[in-house]
Amino acid sequence: MPIRSNNQNKRIRQLFSQLDIDEDIKSALVHQHTNGRTTKSSKMEVEDYKRLINELSAIERNQRIHRATPSRPVNNNNRTDNELRQQMRLQIIKLMRSIGVIEGKWNTSKHLPMIQTWIKTRMGGLDKNFNNLDIPELTKFITILQTINRRYKERAEQQAKLN
Predict the structure, then answer these.
(1) Which of 81, 102, 117, 153 is most buried, with most CB under 10 Å away?
(2) What is the DSSP secondary structure assignment for residue 105, as one 8-state letter?
């Protein structure tokens, strides 16, 4: 079995720190990237480790870009930040539907508390209203949900092959 390099170990620690990922989220990410084999990054296989580094690097790059990009003026040719945030919130709702968290017609009083709970548990205890999340936070949440969605689809495909 190939062994991770010191550079990979340093990079993952750096990414966890830069993205302010706490132990609970770290464990959840490791669990997702190992298909439930472990919650300990030290027990991850090299390929799982590489995928996690790539995913976290993409989130970090996205955050860096959004921090460096000045606010855009309202312009018919460009989406405003509010429009982009709204589109991202809709993408989150769609992803949550695809993994079965949200079912049926949208009901704010029923579904918004579910999303708030997911934000708090999946994003390191972030206690922020869904509608007040900024673009980097929405990006991070979308990436987490995309990972979960991909894992559900992979498991469903594996189950279909077994049947």
Answers:
(1) 102
(2) S
